[in-house]
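Progress report, Aim 2. The chain analyzed during this reporting quarter is listed below.
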Amino acid sequence: MEKEQLLYLYFSKELTAEQKQRFDELLVTDPDFKKQFDFESDIQNAIRDKETKDLKQRLVGFEKDISQSAPVRRLKPNYQKWSIAASITLLAALGWIVYNSLSGPNYNDLYESNFQEYPNTVYTITRSDTVQSLERDAFAAYESGDYELAAKIFLSSEDKGSIEHSNFYLAQTYLNLDKNRDAIALFNKVIETDDEFKAEANWYLALAYLKEEDKKNAIAVLEHHIENYDYNRSKAEELLKELD
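Predicted structure tokens for the chain:
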């Protein structure tokens, strides 16, 4: 019952801070809960896509109705054409405004314009480096964009603690693999345990919430970031303006 309630509150955007922490933990530790979450997310996305298409079709229908019903008998030809065109243009503009207000900000565009993968600053890889290790293999895969392999190696080294700051870079790979909730859980862990990457993790946590279209938590994290960190503060301020 608790898990179903957490899913309901998540999609209603009503999770408290304590519930959000429990939610993120379950995504990482409970495969069945993660599977149910992915299923519900797919349904939500399908519904949102359907509503968007229906709204666009209704706007097209409204434009056709105006062009067919506009009074034309007492108007001179040129003025008649101008009146119909102006009506259609006005309705289309109003429809676009309504559509944007209903759909909210374009989260994907905002994410893409603000996301830049954090570089490997932990392990320097050179061509002459022939020493094989989990750390070298993990960061080599990360730098080459093989995120599936990088994630696998970072995870395999987690228990041994053999890769410094592995959670931060594992969270980066999750973002690139669209495993946003896993990334959120790890960024929160980095903020709590890794002082060196605390500010960076907080910035990427905001982006992960943005990618999830979780406006409430994205705004909360951005406000905290602006108050507490210098890293990408100006970007955080601009992004917050876009979301308000």
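Residues 109-243 form a domain with the Serine Threonine Protein Phosphatase 5, Tetratricopeptide repeat fold (CATH 1.25.40.10). The chain has two domains: 32-104, 109-243. These observations will guide the mutagenesis work planned for the next reporting period.
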